Amino acid sequence: MRHKKAINHLGRKDGHRKAMLANMASSLIMHKRINTTVAKAKALKTYVEPLITKSKEDTTHSRRTVFSYLKNKEAVKELFGIIAPRIADRPGGYTRVLHTGFRQGDGADMALIELVDFNEAALASAKAEARKATRRSRAKKAEAPAAEAPAEEAKAE
Q: Given this model, what pLDDT does residue 140 score?
């Protein structure tokens, strides 16, 4: 029975699992999105989100702590230099797991894991929706005073 066994061992020994998650986390940080199985994506999410939270505070201690997990100097630079400033005001939920179907060879459930603030397509559509809403509200406000102006002129006469 697996009662109170929260971690998914992913069919690997401890050292292999830690090395795999460190490599996947480095790849995610460097490329902003990676394609993997759903089980690995969920395990990676629990592995990388605390590291991203740690990167919000740029101190020597936090850099060394994150480096001990990632074991990749370039990934640490990317995380603290580029990613941390963009997620500074986000209170959590830095990654998104999107199911993409099944792998051709063995039918494994595949997923795309990505950093939320680095998906340009989603950010562009969100900005477009915000602009549309603003235009509509401004257009209504602009029409309202124009409609009232002739009525006020008629009263004045």
A: 57
- pLDDT, one tens digit per residue, over 134-154 is 555 665 555 555 555 555 555
Between CA 30 and CA 45 the distance in angstroms is: 15
Domain ranges of the chain: 1-117, 119-157
> What's 108's DSSP letter?
P
Cα distance between residue 72 and residue 86, in whole Å? 21
- Tokens representing 61 are 């201690």
Q: Which residues pair with 97 in a beta bridge?
A: 113
Q: Are 41 and 97 in contact (CB under 8 A)?
A: yes
Distance of alpha carbon 95 from alpha carbon 119, whole angstroms: 10
Q: Which amino acid is at 1?
A: M
CATH number of 1-117: 3.90.1030.10
Over the stretch 60-79, which tens digit does the pLDDT of each residue have? 999 999 999 999 999 999 99
Q: Give the SS3 label for residue 97.
A: strand
